[in-house]
Amino acid sequence: MMERLDSWKLALERLRSAHSPDWAEAGRLLAEIARMSGDLTLRQAAEQALPVLRQAVDNDEHGVMLAAQRRLGVVLDVVHDLSVPRFGRRNAMPKQLSSEDRARKMLGLPLAVQLTCEEINRAYRRAAKGLHPDQGGSADAFIDLADARDILIHPGAHKDA
After folding, report:
1. In 103-123, which positions are buried (b, 16+ CB within 10 angstroms) versus exposed (e)?
2. What long-range pairs does 78-82 form, CB within 8 A, spacing at least 24?
3. Would you give the DSSP letter of residue 159?
4. What is the rounded distance in angstroms from the CA atom of residue 148 to the CA atom of residue 104?
5. What digits encode the pLDDT tens for the residues 116-138?
6. Residue ranges of the alpha helices (H) in the chain?
7. Nearest to 33 by CA among 91, 85, 72, 63
8. What's the pTM?
9. Domain spans, the chain
């Protein structure tokens, strides 16, 4: 499993650092990750990134390219978290994420990047399509998603849980 993570990490880093990435190749890589990964978070990140990467193939719009770069960055962040060596006490619980970081992960947004309200709302609408109760999703999950959006739009109004 670690060899696969390392090869995915190298391929993602190469794609992310390329001046003009091959989005078709990125799509194939993320389809493989979505299909073969044993980690739920990594599978979800890859699945959420696939539509944007497919849209970026043969598309020169700046907004589409930027969205594809960001989605690739989110997947790379997850792969990095899974492949980085763990130091410290064995079997120690990982550090708890802040409410803002949890909200970013829930919406599929990169960590530690300044976001506009429009970007947050776009990510919310994209994620809400599959979680809406009318589309077969859970009402609780949909409410959690709306809370995540509110936390990101109004960060000072919420305390860490």
Report:
1. bbbbbbbbeeeebeeebbebb
2. 78/39, 78/41, 78/42, 78/45, 79/5, 79/8, 79/9, 79/12, 79/33, 79/42, 80/9, 82/5, 82/39, 82/42
3. -
4. 7
5. 899 999 999 988 887 888 888 88
6. 2-17, 23-36, 40-56, 62-83, 99-107, 117-131, 139-153
7. 72
8. 0.52
9. 2-83, 99-157
CATH architecture of 99-157: Orthogonal Bundle (1.10)
Q: What is the pLDDT of residues 61-87, one digit of tens each?
A: 888 888 888 888 888 888 888 877 767
Closest CA relative to residue 65, chosen from 73, 45, 126: 73
Residue 149: predicted pLDDT: 92
